[in-house]
Amino acid sequence: MNITNILLILPIWKPIVEIAILWFVIYHMMLFFEGTRAIQVLRGIVIIMVAFFLFQILDLQILNWLLTKLFAISVIAVLVIFHPEIRHGLARLGQRHLFSAVLREEELDYILKEAGKAAENLSKDKIGALIAIEKNDSLAAYIESGAFIDARVSADLIQAIFTPNNPLHDGGLVIQQGRVMAAGCLFPITQNPDLSRIFGTRHRAALGLSEETDAVVIIVSEERQDMSLVYRGKLYKDIGREEMISKIKEFMKLKE
Amino acid sequence: MPEKKVNFSYRIAHFFTYHPWLKIIALVLAIVVWFYVKEEINRFN
User: Fold this and answer.
1) Could you point out which of A41, A52, A69, A244 has its C-alpha 20 to 30 Å from the C-alpha of A251?
2) Is there a domain that residue B29 lies in?
3) Do A103 and B1 touch (CB under 8 A)?
4) What tens digit of pLDDT does each residue of A70-105 get?
């Protein structure tokens, strides 16, 4: 008896496969919305769905009718509320590298050593910096907004770029495929209303980029003279050089 | 970009430690949606 026959006999496999696929899709949708303002709306929808299911089990007809009508309207509401997220999601589908070159671990170590050294020196000198390291999602669209460089990563180069009065010091630097690809790049600003007012445009741009892509972003604050890290919409404030390097390695290793 | 080769035990550990609550909520939602759709299909048949 082959596997196809066994699957046909067992009636249970279809629901399991269907639920597993649904689980996969819902989990990835939630993962996508995690860290964005849309997660609050999503939480509300989850509560309504669970309530709807309970009303059906308990046979509460009035509440059930109300929620059914609400569902019909909510389709349009969801499209309007999630408009920016849907747009970003579709854009990200096209950003994925299909045949991305994998950096060797020694190359990553070298890049992080140089970037860490530059960030530490810049923070000591009270100079702000914004460095994005590409992971899976392409940063090509952001590279286009800045000045193209395509140079080997070095601490001296990064420090030189962020030195005040340098034409490229405003904006972000992008490291792509192990090279400094561009500087003076414009990153999207986060719309997160929960972000403290003490964070300026640099932190907001780093968060905005990390909400739209899986890039790891290093921020050096000129006012507080500290280094921070942003990944997937989450800010890791005031961290040391070693901690920053180990966190970046961990994020780069994560498969999503 | 860089992706270190990870072994099977790391993958299993990562599955349970990376967003465990999100996975549980997603599973509950998947079951709720499946039963809801099943009931809707049965109602029309």
Assistant:
1) A41
2) yes
3) yes
4) 777 777 877 887 777 777 667 666 665 544 555 677
Residues B39 and B20: their CA atoms lie apart, in Å, by 29
What percent of chain B is predicted at pLDDT more than 90? 0
Q: Which of B3, B6, B25 sits opposite A46 (nearest CB)?
A: B25
Q: For chain B, say whether A177 makes contact (Cβ under 8 Å).
A: yes
The predicted complex's ipTM stands at: 0.80
Domain that holds residue A173: 105-253
A59, A81: one domain: yes
Q: Which of A23, A50, A252 lies closest to B30 in CB terms?
A: A23
Residues of chain A in contact with residue B31, where contact means CB-CB under 8 angstroms, are 19
Nearest by CB to B1, from A30, A46, A136: name it: A136
Question: Which chain A residue has the Cα nearest residue B35?
Answer: A53
Spatial contact of A172 and A219, defined as CB atoms under 8 Å apart: no
B30 and chain A in contact, CB less than 8 A: yes
A88 shares a domain with A157? no
Joined tokens for residue A207: 């968060």
Contacts B18 to A, Cβ<8 Å: 254
